[in-house]
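hi! just following up on the protien thing from before. the input was this:
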Amino acid sequence: MEFDSTFIKKLKENDSKAQRIFYQQLAPKMYGICLRFALINEDADDILQDGFIRVFRHIKDFRGEGSLEGWVRRTIVNTAINYYKKKIKQGINTDLEYVKGKVKEENNIVEKMSCDELLVLINELPPGYRMVFNLNVIEGYTHKEIGKILEISENTSKSQLSRARASLQKKIFSIRDREQIE
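and the predicted 3d structure came back as:
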């Protein structure tokens, strides 16, 4: 979705009508991003709200390099990361040894699952795994970038992604096994 320079100027001038239209058009897509990072809908709601507050506060900093939607997306992702960091400081468990062992690969099971079913499985991951998985697999960040963002080593990022994938495979195979029994 592209926004013309006149509309962007209205946003920068804090035009409430333009802000409302902007929010209504982008919030559903940005909420999907928030859901990938949050465990529960209430957390996703908080991330979305905080993210759009940041967007409207800093819209004057948007220089028109790239799309406005991309700029908003980065702001929402950064808000989610900051939310995650705050949760860590509050003592949320991110046990890195949560998953052990290897799981065999299966070809068709994921293809049969809906996006909502996959999202539920991703949201069941421990926060650290979920954050690295989302940043790498969905947002396309490198392990080096993730390390800087989350203040962890590049190897820790790789390890958490590996364990996130193993955990997801285990959950998917568990679902497959239940379906075969029924």
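The chain has two domains: 5-89, 109-181.
The mean pLDDT is 80.
cheers
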